[in-house]
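Dear colleague,

Thank you for sharing your sequence with our group. We've completed the structure prediction you requested, and as agreed, I am returning the results in plain text so they can be pasted directly into your records. Please verify that the sequence below matches your submission; if there's any discrepancy, let me know and we will rerun it promptly.
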Amino acid sequence: MFRLSSRILFAFLFSVYCLQRKNWYSRLDKEMTTSSLAVLHEEVSSIVYCAELCSEDDYCMEFLYSDINRQCIGFHCVKKDSYSYQYFVLGSTQMLHYEKELNWVEYSGHLYLYGEEKLTWEDAKLECQKKCAHLVLIETKEESDWLAATFLNAWTGGNDLDIEGQFVWGHSNTSMVFTNWYVTEPSIGNPSLAAVRDCIDILRNGKWNDKSCLMLTAFICERTII
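Please find the predicted structure tokens below.
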């Protein structure tokens, strides 16, 4: 009876904190049923240790744990090079589902995360993918103004890497309906600059600027609220 009561209390009131990496994990109500990017750990002694295993893996955003068979399963959102995955199908064993807590900010049905670490555009894109998100896609002036008021200048998903002068949103590969360029941008009027300025960042005033994708810049990730 005590064991059962403890499990119920643990499931509803406990957030897992990993001291080593300073990561919090919160309980999720949604059920994970299948995944092709599962990382299986057998005979894990506790949910705290399971959280530590996930915390040590920067691709791991969620994990399941069963205190019955001590199975710990971490989940990636994007494939990691030279990594061995297993296909996961939820069986009859009840498992606790936890997600890494990040500082997402909600706006108009979407979640946004500001990445303070300055990275190249490609590295920023990967960091967002690790978090089951993508570099921000800006669809309206209201969204652009809100981003500028909420975050500092940062990479967006906009680029013309494939065809010079044809800017698209990287996540959806769709053309831009709304744009908010700075007065002298984009650089397509200056071919010598345009050839090396293929990625878009949003400035503090909300205007857009194209620059070299190799420049180190903060970034904004976006995902839809599920």
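Summary note from our side: The helical segments are 2-13, 47-55, 121-130, 141-150, 191-194.

Kind regards,
the structure core
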